[in-house]
Write a structure and sequence with these properties.
This protein is mainly alpha-helical and 92 residues long. The chain has four helices and no strands.
Length: 92
């Protein structure tokens, strides 16, 4: 999740914030996987950046915990998917 995502949902509902956090984490996780990054490194990188962003501008304790939990679930969901072969890109 980046600051632009956070700013775009500041006026929205908590559900909007969680949805944006989930989508951002899934997108970044998949992007890093395609680049060949190790699953543990992906997890650490995304969560470390999220923690830094929340430390810079918190939504409040409960909301921050909800965002972190949502991002963690999104990461684990993507990492649980089988890796696709680079030589055989998925047909969308």
């Amino acid at each position: 999740m980046n600051r632009a995502t956070v700013r775009s949902v500041e006026g929205g509902t908590p559900k909007d914030l969680l949805r944006a956090a989930e989508l951002g984490a899934r997108l970044e996780c998949r992007h890093r996987r395609v680049k060949g990054q190790d699953d543990e490194a992906i997890r650490d990188t995304i969560l470390d950046r999220l923690r830094r962003e929340l430390a810079a501008g918190s939504f409040g304790s409960y909301a921050d915990e909800s965002v972190v939990a949502t991002v963690q679930r999104a990461i684990e969901s993507v990492l649980g998917e089988p890796r696709s072969s680079r030589s055989n890109p998925a047909a969308n």
